[in-house]
């Protein structure tokens, strides 16, 4: 499980950077910036652990994730302009994070004895997107994941992949597969600029 | 309990429609629209189950409510203009939902061994209004229930009615009574256009 | 523990007033005003109890805090203009509340058997600032505590003080110390107008 843990730390780091960047843009103070980075990195896992009744959540019992996200936030504060320019690196790291968070969440449901498809996929999805939803609510934005691009769907497909392959192979193999599927869908949607459909009202006033 | 379950599904359906309609108006994508419908339909019960320590919440263990709300969301997406015109039907279904969610929430507190009035009424209220509060927070609105009309009060009075009558009659009878009281207050407030008071500042600049 | 309980009630009262004042300014109805006061007063403790798995949260089992916050909200509704002018009294009471909530939260973690520094300080901080964060999210503001002044830091330092002194002295003494430290930092930051740093972008367009 060494490699997947490295991906997990990378995902936590990327989420901490993403939250801190938005915090700086929204003119939060240093506490707000680091808190927003932490909420983005740990929020999904917190909500999942609450839902599973796994309390206190892992994020409070093992501070290493908090330390990684706070380190990411501090680096973002110190090197804002340089980091803000690394958009491609951030997008790729965030897609890895989405994949690994989904895999950890889905496998966490099974580890706690809940192996029905709905709850496995839900826990994957909540772990994958929960932090970003919290981040956006805290800075008064309609969550990004509800509005555009293919983000949640990548997590749902990846979690479903985990659910169906977990009985067929060793647990870590199913997690890598989930990560790969989620990552591939997310990156493909960015490369090919695929958006999930938005309802078009027939506005007769439009020329 | 057959009839009250039918009302429960109707309430979940109406909440799914209400969330999806708002999601479409806020230009969410299809995932966002369905998620918002689900949050509106299941959110109150989720928060209640977290508060009662009843984890994982019912909504994750039994996917039927999720399926009903997703079905409601999909129908709303497909027939948006037609459904958007059914305002009276939506208002009445939503009032039934408020009543049945309140009854289910209040009885859930007692079923889990908490029979003090404050917690029984709180759990009725949280189940009744929680989904709508979540929906409004997700789309960046101050929750409707905090701002106007008689909505939360109907739920509080209904839940209090449940608390006082539950020891006197069979459980389902008290639930029907709670549903009827909540529904009647909510509908009466719409028909007679009764708002709960809003503080009027003495603005001397107003002519 | 008599004196610290009096401080606790004062803190709940001040939080109820602060929530109700904002609710009136945001033109909520009477239910919304009282609900916002209650969320501000009880929200931090609710979130902490969820995180600790201490369910149902104390705030639902013992309605006295709810009664105090609702009383505070009603008084604010009845005497809005007079109370709105008591800014200094509100600031001082709020600072006492921040201190006592932090002390109660940090000691609650230890009482439930979690004595690692990260979780003790987190539970102090969540109890201290959680209600205000909820209040601001409900009325569509970026939480105050993320944006300016020294507020969260006072709570973090106070909770750290509790963590390090709790093994050395009777529990109540450590709680008073936490309260005093948090209060002193918060008040000093107001008196000397100290803000936590906000990132300054080098905007070349500024003359």
TrEMBL record, chains A, B, C:
Q: Which spans are transmembrane here?
A: 6-24, 31-51, 63-80, 89-111, 117-138, 150-168, 174-196
Q: Does the keyword Cell membrane apply?
A: yes
- What species was this sequence derived from? Paenibacillus antri
Keywords on this record? Cell membrane, Membrane, Transmembrane, Transmembrane helix
Q: How does it sit in the membrane?
A: Multi-pass membrane protein
Query: Family per UniProt?
Result: Belongs to the UPF0126 family.
What is the name attached to this protein's record?
A: Trimeric intracellular cation channel family protein
Tell me, what's a Pfam family for it?
Gly_transporter
**Domain of life assignment:** Bacteria
Provide the protein's localization: Cell membrane
The record's section on InterPro entries has: Gly_transporter
Q: Where is the Glycine transporter domain?
A: 7-80, 92-165
GO annotations of cellular component type: plasma membrane
